[in-house]
Amino acid sequence: MTVNEHIKQSNQGRNAQLLEQKYERMSEGLFLFFRATSSVFFQDFAQHFSTTDPTRVWGCGDLHLQNFGTYKAENRLVYFDINDFDDAALLPATWELARMLTSLYIAGEELDLEPEENEQMALAFLDSYTKTLVSGKPIDIERRIATGMLAEFFDQLEKRRRKDFIKARTVKVEGERKLNLENGKVLPISAQKRSEIETLLTAWLQQHPNPFFTRICDIGVRLTGTASLGLERYVILVENTKEKQYLLDLKEARTSTLAPLLPLSQPTWPTEAARIVGIQSRVNNVLPTLFCEIVGQGKSFVLKELQPEQDKLDFHLWDGELETLEDLIRTTAVIVASGHLRSAGRQGSSIADELIDFAKQPQWQQDLLTFCREYPNKVHQDYFAFCEAHEEGFFE
Question: Can you tell which superkingdom this protein's organism belongs to (predicted)?
């Protein structure tokens, strides 16, 4: 099977209109293509990386530089952590790290880093990751200890007000706020689908002891991301008893793309959304607001307060200082290692002592760096083949 056939097969069953947009976004740049083809990456990794890795960690399953972000939790404080667990699973640590390190090499190309600078960033990540594991203690990244680019991300979100965000995403129609369908972030929803989502949310509210909202004001199809485009995803405008309005994100949960490749047996989860919520709850320090599973109509969804797209880590905002970039990358490594430690010993995952021993072994680090340093050559080849096929209409 060619790479293009693999991509086409792995995207079967998605909304055709949104899938067309996904393919268009994938053609816009190497990193976007890499983000959207995790199944290709892990298939190659499973076939070609043979270094023994005895660890078992709870991972997000698609760890790359832009799967980190700032968000507000229920206490309305700002946190920075991994924020996408759609492909989360129990996996060897090297599987999680390989995806992240490769993303650093590819991001370095887009930032015009010299090869030795790119190598410095990858080494910095591994150094920070292993040192955190060896400490045996998870470290929480808080606003007061943030520096450089991360401090700027915290500042941006702390200054943002909920009312301003609501106004930016909605319009007034006959005195009522409705979702703005003209900003390219939301598509209209059919009457039938709206009724289905309202029924789903109403049933959930009746079972929830402390409802976050009491009235559904509007629903639309949410356009965001690259890898998830084509899945069912909705933005919902709601209001609580104090007439405060919020935007929610309701996202369909599907089987992890790693499922056919994983070398470790997995727990039996009642639903795919339960898997996502369960693993993220173990790995993250503090969870996003209203983070839960909703089941109905033969599907499962993850519900949470909408996190603005601009709060995802954007490495293109780098100020050009290598020290600033390295500081940020070291912070992401601390977060990854802390998540592995925080979830250690749960349902078959390695205990902290096993992770500490693993961190002290140099061979897997050398082998992993070699693979991740060379793999972007394969991404370039796949990207060129994809763009050519896309122009010729292969994905139509």
Answer: Bacteria
